Amino acid sequence: MAFVSLWFFRETIAAEPAKHFTLKLFIVAIIFAATSMFFRTYHGVVRFSTMADLKRLTYSAISGSLIYFSFVIIFNNTDIDGELHLTFNYWFPFVLGMMTLAGQFIFRFTVKSVFENFEQATNSSYKTRAFILGSDYDSILLGNHILSDRSSPYLPVAFVAFRSNQVGKVVSGIPIISLEKGLAKKMEEYKAKTLLVYKNQLDMMSKEFYDKCIVEGMDIMLVSMFTRFDEKENKAIPQINKIKIEDLLGRNTIRMDRSRIEHQFTGQTIMITGAAGSIGSEIARQVVQFDCKELLLVDQAETPLNDLWLELIAKNTGIIIKPIIANVSSQIKMRQIFEIARPSLVFHAAAYKHVPMMEFHPSAAVVTNVGGTKIVADLCLEYGAQRFVMVSTDKAVNPTNVMGASKRAAEIYIQSLYLKQIERGVPNPTEFVTTRFGNVLGSNGSVVPLFKRQIEAGGPVTVTHRDITRYFMTIPEACSLVLEAGCTGKGGEIYIFDMGEAVKIYDLAEKMIRLSGRIPHKDIRIVETGLRPGEKLYEELLATSENTLPTYHRKVMIAKVRQYDYDLIHPTIKEMLYTANKYVYPDDVVRKLKKLIPEFKSTNSAKYEALDREMELEEVEQITA
Questions:
Q1: What separation in angstroms does the CA of 333 have from each of 19, 155, 337, 345?
Q2: Domain encompassing residue 180
Q3: Please, which residues bridge with residue 348 across strands?
């Protein structure tokens, strides 16, 4: 290109012998060829030129001009063999460099544009037209990547602005628009029914915006930028998957400071009970990211425990991982584990959690949820564990069912056990901490997997009541709370999340049906089946008699609850466990639960509601006697 530029300006150069001009052409060709080789300007494919290629071209042209200018200074007006008298213009090297650079830019831009226009014209007919959420650097990078990727199934037609002052501008030939108003009209205008959302920008738009997109039949696709490398194409490519209901929780995801956790786990032996469950297994996945010494996975479910073990050892973290098949309600077995392993940190996630099932089997709920917790907590105290963290539930607040009451009884026991240590001045007491949260999206037994199965089967989708609401959180969020408590709790606390607004289950069902590409009440029916035994219409995270204290994280609080004397409640719990293990009559177990937890009032359970009335009459008779 430099050679051509010099030839183009041959008429403007002072008249001189042909030998002079030929020599200059040769010098220019050598210099600019050398700089091009040095900066590897011809190693890239022209039609895939990027800013990196343009930078190399610029460096090459500038370097060539400077070298040529140096040559001019040194050899200007030099006689060669007494015949050749070289004369140079000092300005010409820079004009030459600019002409060279401009020519290469124009050439590459023309080739790139021709190929891109040809590709779009031939491929756009079978590609899915899509909006891209955002008009920032990441969104534009995604748009440019999709445009340049022939194998991409998408064709970006517009960027969706977060701010109104960006609307109307054009980036990479793609307009920036707003979808806040006239969504259906814009979808028709651009012939697009897909919205690509970059994962870290999901919270930038409101819940109402996504609801509107779903109602209008928009396919929302979640993008994890450049998370997969295609060896065949020799390039990183974005992962694009259909958005899940967990991604549209309706509030900003609560993120924890993992640096606060890491130093607490280093070199520790950690035990997780209920490790094969949805919460326990996610705790295990997060724990192996830290430099702990040994991880004990305790569960009675053989197959899922084996699956988890194989998954974790495949990570090659260097941590000793031991799967242990055991029931937490077996004191002998649990004592053997503590005697051998002596864990310093215990996450207790083992529990029965299905509300209707526990209404029919209150003894099982008490034996596992109360008795199992008591056994593990007592062993932590006996073997000097540093901390015990229990996974509880919002159903423990003003419980209306056996499951919630059994979890509240477990909370009461471990709090009283901690206070007992403090009262007796035990040095380095075991810190007993509770974490309490709502329903976990995607966990075993939650409504989300149930709704998915029902939708895949063609319906109907069943909800117990049109007005029933629940607080939801994702599995990673729930486990982050548990880990936070594991390193920041001092003992006796109940940690809770600010979980935002409660989600209406009926609305959740409609949203999931629409996300599947179908229309509620037309393609798939929603059927109300009635509240199940022990089920509430509304859940509470805090009882009215409780207060909360702030923590370093504005979304995490500590509930201040009534304090119980260990010496008073311990005999009651022992008696209740004795009754549950004997399994004489379920009513006897529930009666003892209600005596321990006066706020436990059964709902939607005729037998236990009758027991409430009976106990109220007995109380009145005792007062009047």
A1: 100, 60, 7, 18
A2: 128-243
A3: 273, 390
